[in-house]
């Protein structure tokens, strides 16, 4: 076991995954907001681990995040299989809702960035209805190029949010947060992938049975067969962990 600050972690191919359960994860991030300490939170799965192993730039981003939580079932399995288990899976979608629930007690400000103009607007409306004591201080879609980054960052900074949720796809959102986190200086900055699509009602989350059986990935594959190429990373990851068992949790 290693520590990132005071967070107990297990290294999966050099990426320090938090071993904390959901409740303690939320508590760490609550303290981050209260102390105004910027935290980049990555909710990672095996696909992201495999991508990081192939791309040193992605690996650097993941290793420099203040917190990497095990979003994918495969990560939880790998830690357990290699004898250094994490407490439980911490899905990004649920972590987002837990933070908003706690944030109601403090009237935290929230900025939403990413997805399409229709989805982001509907997400803002629905979250405000669900968490009336939260302040949605701003939102904008994810369709902007790097030439607009400065302007977008300045606009977000002006609203001084406590939480920033970014939905621009894993390959874009994490490097973007990493690049701008020192300028943004927001206590909790988290990439949330397709969460806004689910919150806005554009797509459905996997039924409870699929969640319980840890088959959310399979449900998504059934709904979006175009994901098959990406999903191949899952059996590749499992095979790699079984083959490399002795070395998986050794710091790279």
Number of E strands? 9
> Which range does the strand content fall in?
15-25%
Structural class: alpha/beta
Mean pLDDT: 91
> Between the first and last Cα atoms, what is the distance in angstroms?
14 Å
State the helix count.
13
Strand order, main sheet: write it out: 5-4-9-8-6-7
Query: What's the shape?
Result: globular
Order of SSEs = EEEHEHHEHHEHEHEHEHHHHH
Helix content: 40-55%
Could you list the spans in which at least 5 consecutive residues all have pLDDT below 50?
A: none
Largest sheet: 6 strands, parallel
Radius of gyration from the alpha-carbon trace, in angstroms? 17 Å
Note the topology.
Blueprint: E1 2-4, E2 7-12, E3 15-18, H1 22-35, E4 39-44, H2 46-54, H3 56-64, E5 67-70, H4 73-81, H5 92-103, E6 109-114, H6 117-130, E7 135-140, H7 149-159, E8 163-167, H8 170-184, E9 188-191, H9 195-199, H10 208-212, H11 216-223, H12 228-231, H13 233-243
Parallel strand pairs: 4-5, 4-9, 6-7, 6-8, 8-9
Antiparallel strand pairs: 1-2, 2-3
